[in-house]
UniProtKB/TrEMBL annotation:
GO terms for biological process: GPI anchor biosynthetic process. SUPFAM superfamilies: DNase I-like (SSF56219). Keywords: Endonuclease, Hydrolase, Nuclease. The keyword Hydrolase applies. It comes from Noviherbaspirillum saxi. GO terms for molecular function: endonuclease activity. Residues 24-236 form the Endonuclease/exonuclease/phosphatase domain. This is Endonuclease. GO terms for cellular component: membrane.
Length: 245
């Protein structure tokens, strides 16, 4: 498992065609379902239903003296490689975002998005090698306050200013105002993308979870995964997208 700020040597692979690529984002709510049961194995079953090539996860327990390592359970159950990026990183509790991938992850960075005294936030920034096609995958979970989200989006866009490969931004943005400032900034950078409703999982009313890619023409389809298991395994439904080369 790769942690933030780790890098591997480049992987040389045959120039195979991975397209269309299936990507997903899923806020797993600490592996606690709508029935209040802690059940990482249930989340793992939802991930297997998705059958995605790359999956961004939010609200992931990453281990600690008082916190189980849910990411390790999910990685073992799926067989994917994993990259983690802790937002809260204390000896007793590590918690944050993660990326699971069928393809090699070459390097991982953690972007600190904390704002004042609010709950720590971050984004895990991973370079993925899909048969020689490099993708930059950024998984995040933004804050609850408008001013907090604005500053977090500003930081993310500053990072993307130096992009040298296609960028996929996905995660729980906690933004339900269609014309909120943070969404307008993201749309201006990535262009508009479909935003199906994902929260709450039993009766979705808000499109809190989003998937963007730049260049935009590579995003061809976005849908919600609303299986009976997904409706109870977390308070969010997974969001799936297909991208092409």
């Amino acid at each position: 498992m790769l942690t933030a700020n780790q890098e591997l040597l480049p992987v040389t692979e045959p120039d195979l065609d991975p397209w269309p690529l299936t990507i997903a984002t899923y806020n797993i709510h600490g592996a606690v379902g709508c029935d209040r049961k802690f059940a990482p194995e249930r989340v793992a079953q939802v991930l297997q239903e998705l059958n995605a090539d790359i999956i961004a996860l939010q609200e992931v327990p990453l281990g600690g003296s008082r916190t189980p390592n849910v990411l390790a359970v999910l990685q073992q159950a799926t067989g994917y490689v994993a990259a983690e990026g802790a937002a809260c990183d204390r000896p007793e509790r590590r918690y944050g975002n993660a990326v699971l991938s069928r393809y090699p992850i070459l390097s991982v960075r953690n972007i600190d998005l904390s704002f004042g005294s609010h709950e720590p936030r971050a984004a895990v920034d991973a370079d993925v090698n899909c048969h020689g096609h490099l993708l930059r995958v950024v998984a995040t979970h933004l804050g609850l306050r408008i001013s907090e989200r604005r500053e977090q989006v500003r930081k993310l866009l500053q990072v993307f200013d130096t992009e040298e490969m296609p960028v996929i931004l996905l995660g729980d943005l906690n933004e339900w105002f269609v014309w909120g400032q943070s969404l307008r900034w993201l749309v201006s950078h990535f262009q508009a993308a479909p935003a199906p409703k994902t929260f709450p999982s039993r009766y979705p009313l808000f499109p809190l979870d989003r998937i963007w890619i730049r260049p935009r023409h590579r995003l061809v389809h976005v849908e919600v995964h609303a299986s009976p298991l997904a409706r109870i395994a977390s308070d969010h439904l997974p969001l799936i997208a297909h991208i092409v080369g």
